[in-house]
Design a protein that fits this description.
With about 375 residues, the chain is of the alpha/beta class. It is built from 14 helices and twelve strands. The strands form two sheets. It has a seven-stranded parallel beta sheet. A five-stranded parallel beta sheet has the order 2-1-3-4-5. Helix 4 links the parallel strand 4 and strand 5. Helix 5 packs across helix 8 and helix 6 packs antiparallel against helix 7. The longest helix is centred in the C-terminal third of the chain and has 19 residues.
């Protein structure tokens, strides 16, 4: 079926923004400020499907835009992964892509950097909401909340009585237990603050970058450059780290085996980080006592083995699902674009260091040493 042509925007001296997704819902005042400074091209949803989207980029239908913004996480991503096939079609002179969402496993930030394009995420906007969800899962895996919840809603007095009498024998308070966090970035640190303040948990963490001493002191955090040394001391392991390159699982049977028998596991990061079959086997064998999962490997589908287990808490990737998060995503996407186009530093750059490395290696602002865009058609 032929793709309908979208007429090119009229020429203008102002910088142009390609706006992907639904209309602004929470901060129209900030959006009006953008429209007073820049030309905004806002394609209809049909143009965002991948075949149409790629064709419009090839045809230059939206002109030479200098920025892209996607203020809503639930729309604007219809074209799928931002990979080399898509990125090499972007116009030269594109400076920044600012999107909602904290995770960026769907966009090749290395490829964007190679083309001189800064990627900004919604880091910070979802920190509070995800941190709260993590605490709920921590309580659940220590206190058998799902078994109690389902028994109460069963309308079966025998199940209710059984839960009332039997669950306390395998329920524990989180206080005094060790929480081992993989990834102590904004979200991981927020969880550490909450778990330390609310539960008095002992905080261990593993990351490629160590926190400053004063940050560690606030939560009495213990840094482990070696993941194995942390796992052996962990009562509850929590993942708060980005996806691995290539989507390979981080939590494997080998890592699970290093956790003490009867420990617990919580994932509020990315489902692809977990070998869910290995997790199911560890739960079935009793090596792990319980698990809490807000994210799943094959969303929107959940693992058929895990879903039957009463010691597994599951939510629908709603860790960041709050009005405050959606508002923050909108604001960050718009503010990042505004700042970059006005020559200021972005608020939440992801790949700025990669762009610097790319320039050092002979690339500058998406161009090779001859001034032509790498891979551009």
């Amino acid at each position: 079926m032929p793709i309908a042509m979208t007429p090119s925007p009229p020429p203008s001296d102002r910088a142009r923004i390609l706006f992907l997704g639904d209309d602004i819902q929470y901060d129209p005042t900030l959006y009006q400020r953008l429209t007073s400074q820049f030309d905004i091209v806002h394609p209809p949803p049909a143009d965002l499907q991948r075949p149409a989207f790629l064709q419009h980029l090839r045809d230059g239908s939206w002109g030479r835009f200098q920025a892209i913004m996607r203020p809503s996480w639930h729309t604007g991503g219809e074209m799928g992964n931002w990979d080399e096939e898509l990125i090499q079609l972007l116009p030269s002179g594109l400076k920044v892509y600012a999107s909602a969402g904290a995770g960026y496993d769907w966009v090749d930030v290395f490829c964007l950097a190679k083309h001189g394009i800064l990627y900004c995420n919604g880091a910070g906007a979802s920190t509070e909401a995800v941190g709260d969800m993590a605490l709920w899962h921590i309580i659940s895996v220590f206190r058998n909340m799902i078994s109690s919840f389902l028994a109460a809603r069963s309308m079966d007095s025998k199940l209710f009585s059984r839960a009332h009498h039997e669950l306390p024998a395998t329920s524990y308070n989180p206080r005094g237990h060790t929480l081992g966090i993989v990834g102590l970035g904004n979200i991981g640190y927020a969880i550490a603050l909450k778990a330390y303040a609310a539960f008095g948990m002992k905080i261990l963490y593993h990351d490629i970058v160590r926190k400053r001493p004063e940050q560690e002191d606030v939560v009495q955090a213990e840094f482990h450059p070696n993941i194995g040394s942390m796992l052996r001391k962990t009562d509850c392991l929590l993942l708060a780290t980005p996806s691995t390159l290539g989507g390979r699982p981080f939590l494997t049977s080998e890592l699970i085996a290093q956790l003490p028998r009867g420990s617990r596991f919580v994932n509020i990061a990315r489902g692809s980080l977990v070998d869910e079959d290995a997790l199911a086997e560890a739960l079935e064998s009793g090596h792990l006592a319980a698990a809490g999962l807000d994210v799943h490997a094959s969303e929107p589908h959940v693992n058929e083995r895990l879903v039957t287990m009463l010691n597994v808490t599951m939510t629908c990737h709603t860790g960041g699902g709050a009005v405050e998060t959606k508002t923050g995503f909108e604001q960050l996407a718009m503010e990042n674009v505004e700042r970059v186009l006005n020559g200021m530093e972005a608020l939440t750059p992801v790949n700025g260091h990669l762009i610097k490395e790319s320039r050092t290696n002979g690339h500058a602002n998406g161009h090779d040493m001859n001034g032509e865009r790498n891979g551009a058609s």
